[in-house]
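Exercise 3.2. Students should predict the tertiary structure of the chain below and write it as structure tokens, then compare their answer with the key that follows.

Predict this chain's 3D structure.
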Amino acid sequence: MVEDFKPRKKIKSKKKTWGYVNSLLRLSIWLSIVISLVLVSICAIAYISTSKVFLVKSIRIEGASHVKRDQVISMLDLDKGDNIFSWNMELAKDRLESYPWIKSVSISRRFIPASVTVRIKEYKPEACAIIDGKRYLVSKEGKVFALAPKSFTGLTIEGINNLPVESRASFLKTLANSVQIIEKHGYTVKTVDLGPGMRTTISLEGKISLVLWDGIDISKIKRAFVVMKRLRAREGVSMDLGFDNKIVLRSSSKGA
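Answer key:
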């Protein structure tokens, strides 16, 4: 009876041993896969950065007339033979959009063959505004975007300094819309003079002028052309549009 209670030696389970071996095998397989992926990535990066396949073959620029090609290339910071993957397209787009003449820009690229296409939309100058003694170009959106060249002979806007800076864009946009309406009636706007109190004098060809108070009111301008058509207004007429219910006609030689 005493011998039945003698301690016995523990024998390791074969199942546990094989489970441990299987775990090591799985770990080894996963490590091999990870190492292989890392090596493949390194090789791919090395290939992309050195292969001639990804060197830029062509750079196409569309829509640029006032912006020279050399200027666009400089702002792109890209040239033929550069690696297309090492080029930061978003930074290039930001640089182009900061150029005064450029209204908007889109850039597309292809990797094989490596090429870049730049599509530029420029501001169209509608007038020249004199601000602080300098001549600036103004777009139809009322955007003052660049210094005016001496060769510009279009509409001249004077007295912008009489407006607060924060009100200028809105005024210029409304003025641009007014000019379009006037031109649809067959008249050409020569100058616009903004005086104190937002007294605006729009001078047309034929020595005809429209005088508005407290800013530009497009509805009054439209009404003025209805009156001009009925009365067959001739040269040398100044139309005072400062009233809500009437238009006062004066001889421009006597002043408004």
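Discussion points: The radius of gyration is 37 Å. The longest strand covers residues 102-111.
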